[in-house]
């Protein structure tokens, strides 16, 4: 069992929150489009009000299933947003850091 979430203290760009000069609503739309394009990433629920998506991802026999939460935040009316990602797995071999890195890298490519 493992857990990992984005943190500004991380040295890798792909493990830090994705911060861009775009509206949080626009970035949230991009998050949802990206999730449609990622094979194996299944959207469990979408909270439009709090700009949060809950996702499941199967990681194979020993990896179990990851529960991933993606949250977009930012001020109202100002083009600035931050996207945080957390992943928690129930398998013997955790893929949480890889899940977070994969999503942040692909989101960065779409919003910059």
Structure overview:
The protein has 112 residues and is α+β, with helices and mostly antiparallel strands. α1 (24-37) crosses α2. The radius of gyration is 14 Å and the shape is globular. It has one domain: START domain (Alpha-D-Glucose-1,6-Bisphosphate, Chain A, domain 4). The N and C termini lie far apart (33 Å). The chain contains two helices and six strands, in the order ββαββββα. Strands 1, 2, 3, 4, 5 and 6 form a six-stranded antiparallel sheet that branches. 27% of the residues lie in helices and 35% in strands. A hairpin with a 4-residue loop joins β3 and β4.
By DSSP (H or I, 4+ residues per run), the number of helices equals 2
Number of domains: 1
Helix content bin:
25-40%
Please give the largest β-sheet. Answer: 6 strands, antiparallel
| Low-pLDDT ranges | none
| Average pLDDT reading | 95
Number of strands: 6
What are the secondary-structure elements, in order, as H or E?
Answer: EEHEEEEH
- In the CATH hierarchy, the architecture is 2-Layer Sandwich
Distance between the termini: 33 Å
